[in-house]
């Protein structure tokens, strides 16, 4: 899985609705009646089910991982205190048809037999959508045929393998060109799915948003060119949609960049952490939304307010509005002010495509003492007060450590997970 942060939205089910779902899952009376033994056995089973505590929700606070078990997708939640396993969620790759999503109440059935012939279709990828604490879906990308044409589309998979296409249905004439529904991303803040409706005949598209629960679709903006129309992301804190050059590169890309927003929601930071340094481009979010309040577009050079270079190459995270945590081996901390940014940013008139600001700013301090240990998989706590990381000495045998982000104490050993090679995706 990518290191992208997973932020599930918790929506509580009404007791009556929860009971209805439970009964439908267990099956009801067929009206024909049954033997007394069968009825008593059923009653005993129901009583036993009531006595069995429900597994904790994957949406609870903790450390979440994502793995593949064959073609199945497995999410596991661990305690951030002692590393014990809290809950596991598994999506099967055995597809079954679904007219509409039971969880959402809308959508249409894809041709599952056709999809089963696609060996790349599995449950190991796609965004996790938590409709409720115990009801989850997986956002998936696949293909469908429209009047003999193969087009990109998207839908959701249930834990049981029921697949529902959510992309709008389309009809085209014999000589018409259908639309590709590209790059769907889940916006947990606003509970919607963002996607690009791309017209290959015109080489342009519309950025659209589908309400997760009603299925209603609204236009957010437009894009031009197959490259731009294939890039779309969402800021996890605010739910703001981003399209175009600012969109971080896909996992596995030759580029290594990230996009994040400050805790106060005022600044967008594009970080290019390649080579031996990190180029930080600061963008005012209000300015970036001036032309379209629903969508941030445009290039880095068009939107940048400040740009500086740090002497370490590592992905950053905001600790607060003026402090960055960088994921290098020593966990560097860099503090900045607007005056500092202005002082070390080249004037606009001196910038061009053929020159590079080679002034590297030093970091202020580190959270991990320099040494031979290899440190990785850094995770900032939701309140940004501490960081977890996995540390391996030269002799091997890794374990997890924690350190306060204010530098008030040395790192201390936290716990060992049941599988020492586990990669944690997020601390939620």
Short description:
The protein is mainly beta and 428 residues long. 11% of the residues lie in helices and 38% in strands. The model is unreliable at 1-52 (pLDDT under 50).
List the helices and strands and how they pair.
Blueprint: H1 15-26, H2 36-51, E1 63-69, E2 72-78, E3 85-91, E4 96-97, H3 112-116, E5 128-132, E6 135-146, E7 149-157, E8 162-165, E9 180-187, E10 192-199, E11 204-211, E12 217-224, E13 232-234, E14 241-243, E15 257-261, E16 267-272, E17 278-284, H4 285-288, E18 295-296, H5 300-303, E19 306-310, E20 316-320, E21 323-326, E22 332-335, H6 338-343, E23 360-361, E24 365-366, E25 374-380, E26 386-392, E27 399-404, E28 412-415, E29 424-427
Parallel strand pairs: 4-8, 14-18, 19-23
Antiparallel strand pairs: 1-2, 1-29, 2-3, 5-6, 6-7, 7-8, 9-10, 10-11, 11-12, 13-14, 15-16, 16-17, 17-19, 20-21, 21-22, 22-24, 25-26, 26-27, 27-28
């Amino acid at each position: 899985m990518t290191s992208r942060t997973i932020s599930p939205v918790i929506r509580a089910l009404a007791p009556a609705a929860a009971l209805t779902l439970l009964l439908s899952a267990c099956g009801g009376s067929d009206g024909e009646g049954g033997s007394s033994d069968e009825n008593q056995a059923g009653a005993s089973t129901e009583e036993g089910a009531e006595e069995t505590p429900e597994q904790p929700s994957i949406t609870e606070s903790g450390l979440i991982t994502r793995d593949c078990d064959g073609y199945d997708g497995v999410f596991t939640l661990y305690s951030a205190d002692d590393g014990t396993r809290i809950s596991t969620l598994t999506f099967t790759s055995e597809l079954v048809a679904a007219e509409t999503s039971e969880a959402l109440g809308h959508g249409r059935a894809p041709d599952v037999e056709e999809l089963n012939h696609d060996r790349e279709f599995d449950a190991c990828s796609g965004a996790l959508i938590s409709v409720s604490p115990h009801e989850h879906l997986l956002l998936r990308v696949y293909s469908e045929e429209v009047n003999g044409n193969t087009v990109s589309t998207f839908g959701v998979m249930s834990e049981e393998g029921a697949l529902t296409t959510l992309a709008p249905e389309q009809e085209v004439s014999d000589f018409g060109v259908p639309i590709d529904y590209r790059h769907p991303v889940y916006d947990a803040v606003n509970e919607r799915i963002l996607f690009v409706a791309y017209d290959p005949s015109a080489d342009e598209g519309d950025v659209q948003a589908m309400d997760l629960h009603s299925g209603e679709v609204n236009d957010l903006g437009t894009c031009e060119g197959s490259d731009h129309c294939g890039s779309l992301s969402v800021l996890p804190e605010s739910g703001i949609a981003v399209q175009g050059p600012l969109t971080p590169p896909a996992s596995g890309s030759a580029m290594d960049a990230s996009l994040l927003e400050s805790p106060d929601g005022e600044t967008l930071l594009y970080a290019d952490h390649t080579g031996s340094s990190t180029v930080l481009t600061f963008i005012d979010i209000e300015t970036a939304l001036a032309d379209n309040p629903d969508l941030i577009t445009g290039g880095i050079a068009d939107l940048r307010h400040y740009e500086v270079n740090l002497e370490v190459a590592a992905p950053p995270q905001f600790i607060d509005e003026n402090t960055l945590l960088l994921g290098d081996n020593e966990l560097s901390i860099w503090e900045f002010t607007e005056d500092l940014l202005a002082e070390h940013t080249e004037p606009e008139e001196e910038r061009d495509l053929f020159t590079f600001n080679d002034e590297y700013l030093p970091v202020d301090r580190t959270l991990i003492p320099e040494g031979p240990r290899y440190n990785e998989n850094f995770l900032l706590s939701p309140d940004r007060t501490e960081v977890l990381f996995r540390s391996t000495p030269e002799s091997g045998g890794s374990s997890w450590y924690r350190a306060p982000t204010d530098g008030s104490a040395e790192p201390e050993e936290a716990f060992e997970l049941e599988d020492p090679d586990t990669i944690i995706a997020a601390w939620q």
